[in-house]
Amino acid sequence: MLDVKNINVYYGRRKVIKDASFQIAPGEIVGLIGPNGAGKTTIMKTLLGLTKFTGTITFDNHQITAKDHKILQRVGALIENPAIYPFLSGKENMELYSKDREDMQKLITRLEMDSYINRLARSYSIGMKQKLGIALALLNDPELVILDEPMNGLDIEATISIRKIIHEYANRGTAFLISSHVLSELQKVMTSVLILNHQEIIMDVPIDKFKNAKVTHDQLQTTDMAGTRELLTTHQLAFQEQDGALVINASDADEIQRLLYQNGITLQMLMPIRKTFEQAIIEILKEKRGDKK
């Protein structure tokens, strides 16, 4: 659906996006991740034809340029802050863009905005404005939806509701590009990950790469922790202490179990330690920062 090849974006003489290339397929939910200033919002604006760039962007075989905004007819977007008119009601804001009033009303109800949709948008809370911005992005069944920090200002119930709606649209073939600093929430919806650092895309992989990451350490507890520590030290098997347990190399687990059995120590727990998604991303960014030095 979307094919981005070697795009470069400049602010004056400063290059803010460097040779970015990626693809998004129908129904795919892509998470765009990176530190502040990495260029996430710039990439999103560039996809909408809002910034000048070099390289090529093709949407459904149609090439996008900074002068050609036809893409906006088939793409929904929420970039930075909801683009709403404060002196119109929420419903009037939606009516400006809606091509199907029945679809519009379904979105209002689905996002639980019925109680305030006829009030002037200037009276809305941050969360209400955010919901309205998301509703505007989802109007008219877009083929691609671009969301920049969509969970800002939303409570837990609204966040769960938005997550379900994203899945529903994706199941119908709508593609999503979502940027968020709330990685735990992003992990629950995305099917692939784009990591941006120093204005470059440093990783473009399915989310399963993180879910199926190799386990390198195990957590160990026994009926005789003092004896276990002595045993591992004697056999020069590395370990660290953490929260009343021992952290061992996963590659040593079989040898350690054999030694415990031979020395009459009962194993109570042997559990793999898996990195959280946030930990994995932080490590990747740290490694890349080291490469730049």
TrEMBL record:
One GO MF term, please?
ATP binding
Please state what the protein is called.
Answer: ABC transporter
Q: Where is the ABC transporter domain?
A: 2-223
Q: Name one Pfam family in it.
A: ABC_tran
Q: Which UniProt keywords apply?
A: ATP-binding, Nucleotide-binding, Transport
Q: Which InterPro entries match?
A: AAA+_ATPase, ABC_transporter-like_ATP-bd, P-loop_NTPase
> What organism is this sequence from?
Limosilactobacillus pontis
Report the sequence similarity comment from the record.
Belongs to the ABC transporter superfamily.
Task: Fetch the Gene3D superfamilies from UniProt.
Answer: P-loop containing nucleotide triphosphate hydrolases
